[in-house]
Design a protein that fits this description.
Elements: E1 6-10, H1 16-22, E2 26-28, H2 32-35, E3 36-37, H3 45-48, E4 54-55, H4 61-70, E5 76-80, H5 83-91, E6 97-101, H6 106-115, H7 120-138, E7 145-148, H8 154-160
Parallel strand pairs: 1-5, 1-6, 2-5, 6-7
Antiparallel strand pairs: 3-4
């Protein structure tokens, strides 16, 4: 039987993109690349979030297919944390873990959003779902829940939990 990677559904600002760029056995499946038909290739993914864009007709099946493909190629597959994605995992008996910022620390999440260039519309929507998504997560069939405190990162949590993170060579890109 082929070894499968682990899926970690992470809330925004958990550090999924950083890990995906830094480690060759980790992939960040940024959902907007699957959800939208993008006319905004000239601006960063973070700046695109919260803008109105055309939905890809293949969404969300194209995202789920990418996740299923990635777990056969990577040790860690990082995905967007949304209730509908967790519904899909639960319905299909797909194992996953959750990474969530400490819910007592919205301010840190907000500052990370600002620092990475998210617009106010995105930040406002994120704040609206911050507590409800967490409450939803607690009712889920996840394997592990990783709470990221103010001075921690998803990277430090994974290292602390003995994940084997394999660094990229200096000239290697994802």
């Amino acid at each position: 039987m082929m070894k499968q990677g682990v899926i970690i559904a992470g809330f925004a600002t958990c550090g999924k993109s950083v890990l995906g760029r830094k480690y060759k056995n980790v992939i960040d499946l940024e959902s907007s690349n699957y959800k939208h038909i993008d006319d905004f290739k000239n601006i960063s993914v973070e700046m695109r979030k919260g803008t109105k864009r055309e939905i890809n007709q293949e969404w969300p099946e194209n995202y789920y297919q990418a996740i299923n493909d990635a777990i056969n190629k990577y040790d860690i597959v990082l995905v967007q944390l949304k209730p509908e994605h967790l519904d899909y995992f639960d319905k299909n008996d797909i194992k996953y873990s959750i990474a969530y910022p400490n819910i007592k620390d919205w301010k840190t999440v907000e500052m990370k959003c600002i620092g990475r260039g998210n617009n106010q519309n995105f930040i406002k929507r994120l704040k609206e779902v911050f507590i409800p998504f967490y409450e939803d997560v607690l009712r889920r069939n996840y394997e592990k829940l990783y709470i990221i405190d103010k001075n921690e990162t998803l990277e430090s949590i994974l290292i602390k939990n003995n994940f084997n993170l394999k660094g990229r060579d200096k000239n290697e890109q994802q």
